[in-house]
Amino acid sequence: MNNQSQLQDIHNSGKSYAIYKSSNGFDLYTNFSKKIVLNSKNINSFLNKKKVKKRLNKTDLFIGFFGYELLNNLIGIKIPKQKNNNFPKGIFYKPEKKISLSNRLIYRNSNAILLKKKFKININKKTYTKIFDKFKKKIRSGETYQIKICTKYKMRSKIDPLDFFCRLSKTNLAPEAFMIKDKDYSIISCSPENLITKNGSLITTKPIAGTVKKRKNMTKSRALKYFRSNLKETKEHNMIVDMERSDLSRICKVGSVKLSKAKVVEEYKDLFHYVSLIKGKLKKNIKNIDIIKAMMPGGSVIGCPKISTLNLLNKQEKENRNIYTGSFGYLKFNGDMKFNIIIRSILNFKDISEISVASGVVVDSSANQEFGENYIKAKALIDLYR
Question: Which of 28, 136, 165, 223 is most buried, judging by how many CB atoms fall within 10 Å of its CB?
């Protein structure tokens, strides 16, 4: 039996599983022996598990996600009372089986969408503009320099997550793509952004800040010229890079944090992104919990400075973000880890599909442009329902 057939059989069996993009294709994790539902009471003990120094098997890891609200709690930020659908704040699984898959995922199901209505947005353009103007005043007064306004699209629907993920990967193959299928929820993501890759004492992060819509005759080289000549995009990118360098500096040796790649363009289905890569060497005796607390939630999807901006956002937002701007990835038993930022994602829970997006507001931003950018980011996911 080939690996693609195993994927189909595992999916049809009803087993829980996770798929994560690798350098050569995808890794499928299944046969979970443990499922740990995280909360503010047990996250510290989970992250403080002792490292194993022996040679690891390929399944000696936990794979799963931290939700946005859980990460806020971890760094001491309280979330005001918000609308909540009772989705878990974080879940990790211990797999006993790992299967390597190619980039070309094949799966067909004629009943991909069993129930579908229309997507509704939680913040219309008029409301968005009011929030935008409010935050612009906060920027001018110096309370924040950049802030990300989140909008959420929701629709009642029953979906086949594997069908969605295969089609999404075909049209928008992202370097941090992943999916989870469990008995009562699924997540499908084409996230482009890596937040943490740790191997031994080496750690990297890849901030994305800057977006331009694909248009006729818009090539990568023209997108790069656009970003370099656009003061707003350059400011936004520089602020996020500086903040993530600062986050890394808290846990890395003095002088080791450096830009490995600066301001390059990555191409996706409907847009181009402005990207940098930062690397550092960890201080001695840094623990997993120190890394998570320093780096999460990722600054590129929050704004800066991080703590004061998180407080502003949490006071403004009326419902939980759930997975959005949290992180998915794995923790190996030897302490190595890889985590993305959960963006460009669908959460399907209680037969509700939820797509959250955000765009950055700086002092010279336009409400009309940022509201439109949010839809561009959601479009590749919304198109799956057509």
Answer: 165
Reduced to 3 states, what is the DSSP secondary structure of residue 107? coil
Q: Where are the domains of the chain?
A: 3-206+320-385
The predicted model gives 219-225 an average pLDDT of: 92
Distance CA 9, CA 107 (A): 10
Helices (H), 65-124: 68-74
Beta bridge partners of 189: 178, 345
Q: What is the pLDDT of residues 128-156, one digit of tens each?
A: 999 999 999 999 999 998 899 999 999 99
Give CA torsion, residues 71, 249, 274, 271, to 10 deg.
Answer: -20
Contact 170, 383 (CB under 8 A): no
Question: Is there a contact between 19 and 63 (Cβ–Cβ < 8 Å)?
Answer: no
- Residue 283 phi/psi, 5° resolution? -65, 160
CB atoms within 10 A of CB 227: 23
Residue owning tokens 């759930």: 322
CATH 3.40.50.1100 holds for 3-206+320-385: no
Of the candidates 42, 126, 127, which has an alpha carbon nearest to the alpha carbon of residue 89? Answer: 42
Q: What pTM was estimated for this model as a whole?
A: 0.93
Q: How far is CA 3 from the centre of its chain?
A: 27
CA–centroid distance for 346 within its chain: 11
Task: Write the CB contacts of 159 (distance below 8 Å, at least 6 apart in sequence).
Answer: 112, 113, 114, 186, 346, 348, 353, 385
Reported as a single tens digit per residue, the pLDDT across 12-50 is 999 999 999 999 999 999 999 999 999 999 999 999 987
Instruction: Show the tokens assigned to 190.
Output: 């084409």
Within 13 Å and on the Cβ side, how many CA atoms surround 227? 28
The C-alpha atoms of residue 342 and residue 192 are separated, in whole angstroms, by: 9
Tokens of 263: 């301001």
| Amino acid in the structure at residue 238 | N
